[in-house]
Amino acid sequence: MVQSYKQKHQLAEHYDTILIGSGMGCLATGACLAKAGQKVLLLERHYTAGGYTHVFKRRGYEWDVGIHYIGEVNREQGVLRQLFDYVTDGELKWADMGEVYDRIVIGDKIYDFRKGVKNWKDELKKHFPDEHEAIDKYVDLVFEASKASRTFFSEKAMPKAMQTMLGGQMRKSYLQLARKSTLEVLQSITTNKELIKVLAGQYGDYGLPPAKSSFVMHASISKHYFQGGCFPEGGSARIVETVEPIIEKAGGTILTNAEVKEIIIENGKAVGVRLWDDNVLKANNIVSGAGIINTYQKMLPDPYVKKFKLSQQLDQVTPSAAHACLYIGLNGTPEELNLPKANYWVYPDDLDHDGLVARYEKDLDAPFPVVYISFPAAKDPTWTERYPGKSTIDIITVMPFEAFEKWEDTRWKKRGEAYESFKDNLSKRLLEVLYKLEPQLEGKVDCYELSSPITTKHFMNYDRGELYGIDHDPERYEKRFLQPRTPIKNLYLTGQDIVTAGVAGALFAGFLTASTMLGKNVVKTVLKQTK
Ligand SMILES: Cc1cc2nc3c(=O)[nH]c(=O)nc-3n(C[C@H](O)[C@H](O)[C@H](O)COP(=O)(O)OP(=O)(O)OC[C@H]3O[C@@H](n4cnc5c(N)ncnc54)[C@H](O)[C@@H]3O)c2cc1C
Of 171, 215, 473, 525, which is most buried by a Cβ count within 10 Å? Predict the structure, then answer.
């Protein structure tokens, strides 16, 4: 069982590996190392484990924070499903969301993203009868990027000498596509602005509008969901619950309320960590899944930051956008309320995603550039058994950190009236968007609570309230330091910053980090085993 550092717990004198954070990246690295016989310790700063896969419970409801849907897990033989099965011993079950996973709403028009590449294409071709060729070309490019991604990402886990020898070649074809923005690529296949707006309709999944995001990030999300979306049966908390026994079986532990203050380096090697209460814990290896900015800016002693020019690395990356999420509790089961399983992506009529974001960043009274609505209670087949007579909805929009910065130093839950009324105004605007699409829900809302970028900072330790770690702009893919190995011996990175945002990206990062540390390709081993 996950334990709190503040309660009585049994700690070993020494661990094979200490991992900082308990997000998907650390959970996956930890499980792989445990399966290789290592005794690992995961130290999580939050009072609950899982990173963005955690859930929180209040007023008799449970809300998922950073999982609304995951692709490519509905086929048992699929690579991602096999990796998930490996780190959860097949105990994590998935519920399929059905035929439609995303609904792109632009003004009064709705475009459904249907499960299966052919269905997906056919549906879009119905809306855009003159754009068949562009739609086919688009899908081809998405698959081209996906194919090129395999060698690009596996290179990150190769031994240094092999990286030097083969790296350039392995990265080349992916980089050619990564250097282009999403907009550049979409404009190369069509001049139809409405089609471009629809194709980029999931940009909220990586947090950057089309002129700013790298095409490969866009393509990886698009492809990830082509076969539909799934939700963890029993909610996102099942991820930690199913990984933890594997860690425990090998003698390891996950501890919450265990903030790491410093990574201890001796003779140029990472040898341990100092916790918030100055307690020191030692291990042969240290892995940080707390984000590259947190790791280099807050946890490493200055001389090492200087020696290895780590600040210069951080100057080359940008924190991703922040968000606000309205967590809603409703009276009634998902069936009674007729809640859909598909997510809505709601946009104003204006066809320029980037322009809408820029306008909104300057003036929060401008229309929301994007509103994402998810119905987790409808997606989880165990929900009604666990929470009879209730439902939940999450509504997310982008929210500049600066809009909330003035309350940064106030205490959670005690931030004052001005903060609450600012949030309430935003909440009501978001509810209006919901009622327009699902009018039957008016009068059914029991409670709601808006999280702000400073909530994210408070609980997740992302200083600018980042939603997705560092930005997925074209430059990101050129940064070779975004890999498991760091310049400091026995210190490794994992999580979304070294692959991409998304639970799948972080999971894959976990495998890359474990592969680097164990000196073998763990993904290949898993796939061979299950064949
Ligand atoms: C609102 C939202 C919705 C999302 N929806 C989806 C979705 O539907 N599908 C999808 O695939 N992805 C989604 N994502 C993205 C996905 O959740 C993340 O990309 C992924 O979970 C990140 O995993 P990670 O391993 O990088 O670490 P994180 O989950 O970021 O965890 C890092 C952990 O490190 C801990 N930490 C930080 N500093 C310290 C310290 N000093 N000491 C100890 N611990 C520390 C933090 O508390 C945190 O728990 C969403 C994200 C958000 C925010």
Answer: 215
